[in-house]
Amino acid sequence: MADTGDFYNYLIGNGIPAEDARKALLIGTTTQLHYRTNLRDLIHHSGLRLCSQAQAEWKTVWVEIIRALLAYGPEEHRWQQRAITKLFRPVCYQTGKCEFMGAADRWCVIRDRVEEHHRNGDRPETWVDIDPHACLHPEAARKPPGAGFIP
């Protein structure tokens, strides 16, 4: 473990971005995450982590957060949990446009529709043709065969 940490620090010290250097760290190490937040911040965090640009690990975490919320409490009171999970949407729902249009950004399964709505001036609450949880699908950021370059 110490050697791995030293190697990670070596990579960082030589200009490798932390998000790339962490790939050298051991995987499969059991960790526990204790996360305390309020609903407003949870909604904000969901925007960052439900986006197709987020790392796959975070999508897995959000699938479990949503699953846990939907299973919490007696069935007759779960309408509240269903209403809360509908608030969890990618960042484009918060800003009204795709925030990741750079050449290095990954393809997104909903980007074209989001950008069309943005060009039309449609507000995110009117985007009934887009499933805000579509970005949770494992293939959501994988460009389909034959798709052209997306600037």
For the CA atoms, what is the radius of gyration?
18 Å
Provide the domain count: 2
Largest sheet: none
The helicity comes to 40-55%
Number of helices: 7
Which structural class do you get from the secondary structure elements?
Answer: mainly alpha
**What's the N-to-C terminus distance?**
41 Å
Strand content: under 5%
The dominant shape is: globular
Task: Give structural notes.
- It is a single chain.
- With 151 residues, this protein is an all-alpha fold.
- It has two domains: 1-31; 39-136, no CATH class.
- It has seven helices and no strands.
- Helix 4 (56-71) packs antiparallel against helix 5.
- The longest helix has 16 residues, at 56-71.
- The termini are far apart.
- The mean pLDDT is 86.
Short structural summary:
This protein has 151 residues and is mostly helical. It contains seven helices and no strands. 43% of the residues lie in helices and 0% in strands.
Topology diagram in text:
Layout: H1 2-13, H2 18-21, H3 39-49, H4 56-71, H5 79-85, H6 91-95, H7 111-120
Helix pairs in contact: 4-5
List keywords for this structure.
mainly alpha; globular; 151 residues; 2 domains; 0% strand
